[in-house]
Amino acid sequence: MKLTFWGAARQVTGSMFLLELDDDYRILIDCGTEMARDREESAEMNFRERQGLLFPFEPSLINLVLLTHAHIDHSGNLPNLIREGYEGQILCTSATYSLTKLLLMDSASLHRNKLKAIHGSRRSSKRSHQPPPDTSDMYLERHVDEAVERFVTIAFQQRFKVRHNMYVTFIPTGHLLGAANILVEIIEENGQTKRIGFSGDIGRHNYPLLPDPAPFPPVDYLICESTYGNRRHEAKGKPEDILADVIKRTCIDIPGRLIIPAFSVGRTQALLYTLNKLYSQESIAPIKVFSDSPMALQSTQIHQKYVKLLNADAQEFQEEHEELFDFENLHYVENMEQSRAVSSYHEPCIIISSSGMISGGRVEEHIRKNIQNPYCTILMIGFAAEGTLGYRLTNGQKTLRIGNKEVPVLANVERTDVFSGHADLDDLLSFVKQQKPTQLQKLFVVHGEYDTMLAFKQTLEQEGFGQVEIPKKGQAYIL
């Protein structure tokens, strides 16, 4: 049996692992989009890219895909996999199916807009000698439709028989609605069973809406994410207490406005639920809340549909109040005209809009219109990649270019990681320590920055776990 790491190897994004059984049955675990290219890639990958091929393997030879969760860095290349010849099923949980369809359709819409812009620029610069941009990885809505037809949903904690010698189990991990760690059991010819665990992205404990990661059984091989493998969450206290303090200081003590850039899927729902709890408890004076993201509304409806997958507190709140995400002062912004009107709203208010990194989306316009407003506070609640507007603001940039002018940043910028959906070092160690060091033959560290992986590897070794590997992209191991 062979395991090859084709994504999230010494980088955070693009999760994609290929497990090949002895009888040549091939399983792909996740098929994510890479947000950034590794500097160090295998010769095989470089060769295939020069040939214009999207995958470092032949998609038509894959027999099965297992999907841990819906985020694009885990699911975003599924339409391309099918377009390139994959004909099998995609197994995931039912909530992951619903959210993946939503996110892939959004990606297809972005691709369509990019393609229109590229074609327009080609027509306006026919004499240009610049090579045309590569669009081979851009898919459209029809390709997403073809992909979602392949999905087969599996319930959590159901030991599902894939074939005569293989079982898979999806085990809840928090992080995102429907997200799972996956247990793969392979029964070999000698009757022995090899157990392999794929962590997906691990959630944190005591997160709004989502249950804590469920216990994961002992395995022989473990593939573990390491996004926050060298740090601990800074925020102390309950999310509702931290959010109430920010609202009081920014919207009540002064007649100001609070802008919260938030991803539409997962993060916005955690925010709305926390606000609903605050208002229902009359912990703070009711402030007008605008949720300005069409995708956030769709995602919220999906979360409401799968309320039974949420944590006990959320289910009790739903039973008592009948609504998790809807309250008297909440207004969902439906179109651009309403969005522009929100930017001109003069009363104290809270604006929740995507994207969370302030890299595209309606939130950019809200930020630009309020960047010189000293009565405005921008609350960053998640990671912002280098090069994004969110990164620059979080790191204290004093001016911002708007049009042809450089304008001062007069708005207040704050940050909190209390709404981060990723496990930190303590949560990751809690996950790994469920394993028996004497049984675990190898522990593969993936899905993280290389320096973070090195630090996490050192911590694991100090905890008594030997045989920790940090695979390179394209590196294969015999299990």
From TrEMBL:
Domain of life: Bacteria
Region described as Disordered: 117-137
This protein's UniProt keywords: Hydrolase
Domain Beta-Casp: 268-393
Basic residues biased stretches: 117-129
Molecular-function GO term, any one: RNA endonuclease activity
InterPro entries to which the protein is assigned, alphabetical: Beta_Casp, MBL, Metallo-B-lactamas, RibonucZ/Hydroxyglut_hydro, RMMBL
Keyword hit for Lyase: no
Domain Metallo-beta-lactamase: 13-246
PANTHER family registered for this protein in UniProt: CLEAVAGE AND POLYADENYLATION SPECIFICITY FACTOR FAMILY MEMBER (PTHR11203), INTEGRATOR COMPLEX SUBUNIT 11 (PTHR11203:SF37)
Protein known as: Metallo-beta-lactamase family protein
